[in-house]
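Record 1 of the preview.
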Amino acid sequence: MLKRVILPLLLGIGVTFFMFKKEFTDGTFLDFEWTPRMIVGLLIACVFMCGRDFGLAWRFHTIASPTLSWRRAIKVDLMCAFTSAVTPSAMGGSAFAIFYLNREGVKLGKATTMTLTTLFLDELFFVIFCPIIILFTPLQDLFDASNNFLIGVEVIFWLVYAGIVVWTAILFVGILVKPHIVAKFINRLFQLKWLRRWSKGAREMGNNMIEASQTVKNATLKWWLNVFGATVLSWFSRYLIVNALFWGFIPGTSAWLVFSRQFVVWVVLMISPTPGGSGISEWLFTEYYGDLIGAPTVALILALSWRLISYYVYLIIGSVLLPSYFGKRSVPST
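->
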């Protein structure tokens, strides 16, 4: 597990150092002067990061109530963030929420459905808000047609967004319309020769999932407002981290443009093959925001600050919490 933590760390720092090695060798980085506004910007960014965790913990607490306390919900959130940090972005760490929820006392079937519900909510967020962002932001500001790099970013963005729309539709049917279809698929999947030994458990999981899905479908409007509101809070807080950094380091930059470009960045990073988008995230950030940042040294500091606050800290926290998930369950999951 230590290797999984070190690898993304080295990838991110290595790529960043390579891109800005001139600033190191010339001593430009060492001559950089910090201001009180920059420090305040960093502190505000940390507050927004806490907002991200509060939103996701709120969502876990709501969907798994009354089994999951606030303390355990926060723990599940932090472990999901850690898993996302050590697995390729294309794979994602959300699927491991099933394991973490189950270890915190949530029945396996319900944990499966709850995880699918959180995935659905995350994808629904992008389906709803990306068109709004595009509608109120000139495309030239997001995808400059004269820049080959941004043309490539635009192509990837729309392809990934189309995939998100399709995946959201599938989740909608599986969770809210025809949950038994998903259970049937699982049962058939585990009839395959190399999976047959787990067919009994898979059948039980499918049955539990249908039962838990009924709870979701019968949920009140207040419940849905809470879980979707928590989803919006978590994603907006994540994006506003960059806004806080720009406020501190580059006053006068369009806050809306900085915020809008975060939608593009996160959609593109969904297909990153590296652990937690390491290396690619730093490179994409500096390239995509380069026209707003200007000085390479500032770009370096912003990229590192963004990743330290929103990514590397979870490597440390998750490494500390991980051993507790391989001991005795704190709450029976039966």
